[in-house]
Amino acid sequence: MALHLTPQEHDENPPRTWEVVKKRAGLWHLRQRGQENPIDSFATKREAEEAKKSGRLVDLYENEGRWFRGEHVPGWKPYKG
Question: Is 53 helix (H, G, I), strand (E, B) or coil?
């Protein structure tokens, strides 16, 4: 799963810019600024806010940045931009 298609898109959408949006009671979406589709869903706002700071999505974002820079990411094929 990739979060972004290009290095520029990646750089313009770091986790601190992601939005937490309440969809209904017990359902909070985490999405990129200006996007309707969520990156992930959570039962509480607190969980969604925490996902902007640490966890698998932040790890994915960081690995994606390394991949775009041409660094080796275990299990990922080299980026061919």
Answer: coil
What tens digit of pLDDT does each residue of 15-64 get?
Answer: 999 999 999 999 999 999 989 999 999 999 999 999 999 999 999 999 99
Residue with tokens 């994606």: 64
**18 burial type by CB count under 10 A (0-12 exposed, 13-18 middle, 19+ buried):** buried
- pTM over the 0.85 mark: yes
CA distance 37 to 33: 10
Helices (H), 1-81: 7-12, 45-50, 56-68
